[in-house]
């Protein structure tokens, strides 16, 4: 209780409060988040931020290249668990992030609201995909009563629709509008590199593509895939026909391998990341900043050699790929879009250098340098 009292006193002594007490007007703005909620706040008062997922680092990094996490006081440890390569990159650049509090999942019993308050949290950023959990767990109500602002962003459910408005909103909330607009201009330009070509493709020209979500994460389980959302949507935008979009609605679903084997699949793309530290038995392709093409090839070949898979047309023709799983939850997904398009239509995109574009993204917008392997083709 004493911590809460100290937090309250600190807020009373904040410059914005003192300015209001002496008659100065606060710079309050209203934004609409990706859940359609109208949120009023003063960007000058956003000093301490908690992230519902630490992989929101991918987005914050675009808005403050010098020190993107300087205002982050708490987060969930998913970046460390599921993309440790990226975490180590940011840790090397900003060693102080080791002091950010690991708060656990916002929707479970290990989450401490009192801890959030004692961290003097001004803003809580959550993913739209967790809106229902936030409502059902009572998290939104509790944060509102504590006077903590909450905004929802979306780079995962409907990335091609919600990335631009998410970044525009964050730019306003964090007083980084110029940085947000600079990246958005670049993002739209990069998306159009693909759309300007594939819009001309007739339905009969488009290949049927199966996305295996987290391929090999659990070696004995198969298969999860995407519906007409997330990477499934990017397949369609890249000029393919996403297999899952035709089978079920929604974000993702689980399918029996026999169903896949009975359909004609022109391309198979699995997602992979460095999950070996969280799941040592994983058979996934360990893509990311520390990956090597040699190990990627060994692991991709092992996935292609699973029982029944060598008989698939996509495997026989070497149209069997792996791509960085974390593209599914970041504004950098245009790199995945371009990579898909280059795989589907190599002649149309023979001059498109996706690696050069990813390096350029790092050089222009990110505080970390490019390294590693983020996609791989079966040889």
From TrEMBL:
InterPro entries: ABC_Transporter_SBP, ABC_transptr_periplasmic_BD. It comes from Marinomonas sargassi. Keywords: Signal. It holds the Pfam family Peripla_BP_2. This is ABC transporter substrate-binding protein. Residues 1-26 form the signal peptide. Gene3D superfamilies: Nitrogenase molybdenum iron protein domain (3.40.50.1980). Transmembrane segments: none annotated. Residues 48-352 form the Fe/B12 periplasmic-binding domain. It comes from the Bacteria.
